[in-house]
Amino acid sequence: MVSIKRLNTLSFQEAADLFNEGFKHYFTDITLTVDSLIKKLANEDLSPEKSVVAFDQEKPVGFVINGFRTVNGQKISWNGGTGIIPEYRGKGIGKEMITACMDIYEEEGAELLLLEAISENTRAIKLYESMGYSIFDELTFLVNNEPLSEGAFYFEGDYDLIHGIPQDVRDIEFYQHMTAWQTQYQSLKDSESLIVKCGQETVGYAVFKRTKNAEGKIEGIALYQCEAKPGYEKAHDVIQFMLRSVYSPAEPACRRMTVNFSKSNKLVCDALSKEGFTVMIEQVHMSKAVRTPSSSETETKAVQS
């Protein structure tokens, strides 16, 4: 008999061990230390108190980690990872945990539920669909480990570039609030932003992260968002300008990639494919709208009970 408890009943070490075992033999290598787990919880607004663990007697065998944010006045919940240790998969434990999470989402007044799933993981996608989720976007990890040509991302035009932090882009009129959770500015506390101006007009923005080794050399560049102003006549050149600024063709070979990047952003995806970026992983972006009871409905229910 499996019982469901909250994640905060485990120590951080126990939670990290369960996380790593729960994603064992997964589609990608996901391994966390205690320190990286704590950092992940903080950066991505994940709540151990509002996440669940499945137990077989005293043994933790699965988990769902949940995060919560308010975006444009709407309470959003995110399933930041569902994992089950290998010998317990296929036994219905995932459905039990997701069902328990639905109660938590209702308690928290969540209006929209979000998650991502590896496109190849058809079993998980079918489970989420059975719980009322539906696919609304496709996401891609594109990667290029080779040097870029000097002429990569050629553009025409004269633009001004403002360097800053991710929070700087949140008030841009066309900022994309509903990108994948880990690509939203709130999750990118140690990243950078670019804002592109043409005169006084803001015509584009990007959010990305550069990682460096002990000698200060760039080892990786990860792009999370890259958007041109909708309807802008020179959007192609703005995108090319930002990609050239982010990926620095003059730098030697390093791991240049996108993270959970929307495939619907054709300008960016086509530009990267042209420069030799290839697909590493693809995911589906899923959502479920939830109607929370109004205060009057809650009061009526309380009186009736």
UniProtKB/TrEMBL annotation:
PROSITE patterns from the UniProt entry: GNAT
- Tree of life domain: Bacteria
Q: CDD domains given for it? A: NAT_SF
Q: Which GO terms describe its molecular function?
A: acyltransferase activity, transferring groups other than amino-acyl groups
NAD found in the keyword field: no
Question: Keywords, A to Z?
Answer: Acyltransferase, Transferase
Acyltransferase among keywords: yes
Using the record's annotation, list all stretches that form the N-acetyltransferase domain.
Answer: 2-160
Q: Which PANTHER family match?
A: ACETYLTRANSFERASE (PTHR43420), N-ACETYLTRANSFERASE DOMAIN-CONTAINING PROTEIN (PTHR43420:SF47)
**Protein name according to UniProt:** GNAT family N-acetyltransferase
Q: Which organism is it from?
A: Fictibacillus marinisediminis
